[in-house]
């Protein structure tokens, strides 16, 4: 119903998306090249460890000061009132969105057969699944607090820029690996980043609806605007940041048509995710994560990820709350 009331202004052509599949993040990449020139692969690994731990603020890292100064500013079009409204929507449905992050957003991302190769090569999602999930949760919960956007240099911006640099490190290692296939596009490219942004924004709105929660049009648009700002700070070009829900739908459909297909890597990552989630629920409900995923994704996408068909009625799945471990 919402989609009928909002007209798109862009349709995100294959030509546009193919172009951005070859684009990375020059500002972040330049820092990693500088680190690599000084310390080689070992230096890059040390930098990654420091960024993962996050104990040293970026503005105290010599190589990052200019990056923070130039990239850590809100865009002129950012609307503080809309952002605050988007944050309130998140906080009001925090528990449901927690469920959606694990059972919808992540497996939805694994459907992109080329983009998922980055995660497969890094092995972290398979070998350290719970830690990786906790890091994702800490990021999302850390930027969806109103206080995180206050002050001269908000902590939310620090978190976003930090993740942006971690992506650049992962990209550097993939580019210097003889296992990376150029047919996949650039590692952590801008088409994949746009898709990732959708999994946290528009896909969450869709998941809320599927769970019987229907945000009104203004709330949903505000939530999309919040993540548009996050996407901008993450280095995603404005060409790939939807203006409204209809554009988000069109972009999502275009990316899905281009990239979604069964892949061994996507299926393996889904199985690793399932095992981690199954460890968080009571013994008698071990099949619940798979049932939730299939309910939220739909059978077509669930089959692409080789999710088991669980004999649990959809109406029952919808009523069962599951608080997984996306807690700061």
UniProtKB/TrEMBL annotation:
Q: Any transmembrane segments, and where?
A: none
The record's PANTHER family line, in alphabetical order, gives: ER-BOUND OXYGENASE MPAB_MPAB'_RUBBER OXYGENASE CATALYTIC DOMAIN-CONTAINING PROTEIN, SECRETED PROTEIN-RELATED
Q: Where is the ER-bound oxygenase mpaB/mpaB'/Rubber oxygenase catalytic domain?
A: 93-319
Give the protein name, as stated in the record.
DUF2236 domain-containing protein
Question: Per the UniProt entry, what species is this protein from, by scientific name?
Answer: Siphonobacter curvatus
Instruction: Name the InterPro entries for this protein.
Output: Lcp-like, MPAB/Lcp_cat_dom
Q: Give GO terms: molecular function aspect only.
A: oxidoreductase activity
